[in-house]
Design a protein that fits this description.
With about 110 residues, the chain is α+β, with helices and mostly antiparallel strands. It has 2 domains: about 30 residues, no CATH class; about 60 residues, no CATH class. About 15% of the residues lie in helices and about 15% in strands. It has a two-stranded antiparallel sheet with strand order 1-2. The chain is flat and about 60 Å long. The chain binds zinc ion (ZN).
Length: about 110
């Protein structure tokens, strides 16, 4: 018979790995970017991810660089520099934002 055991996942479905220890998941949920309580760009109706690219004809083979950044409809340009991150990494959202507005429109 295979062994049966319980694992716990984040209730905000953020994709973090599941854990056997429920306390670890509860601690994660407290600071999870997908928890509306933390008022991040991810759960905000103003938050948006923008994809951009740039050709580099000055380099051999003219490579194209791609990147993504977060934009805020409320505070356009203001925090773009901060939110920009290099390709392939998490794009770090603002947390505890004073301009945060729920996507569901219930705040
Ligand atoms: Zn989470």
């Amino acid at each position: 018979m295979p062994i049966e055991y319980k694992i716990y996942g984040c209730q905000f479905m953020c994709g973090t790995r599941h854990r056997k220890n429920i306390k670890e998941i509860q601690e994660h949920e407290e600071k999870c970017w997908y928890n509306p309580k933390n008022k991040t760009c991810i759960t905000c109706s103003y938050g948006k991810i923008v994809s951009d690219f740039c050709d580099h004809p000055e380099m051999e083979g003219c490579p194209t660089e791609y990147w993504k950044y977060r934009e805020c409809h409320e505070e356009s340009n203001l925090e773009m520099e901060f939110k920009q991150n290099s390709f392939g990494q998490n794009i770090i959202p603002i947390t505890d934002c004073s301009k945060w507005k729920s996507k569901k429109g219930d705040n």
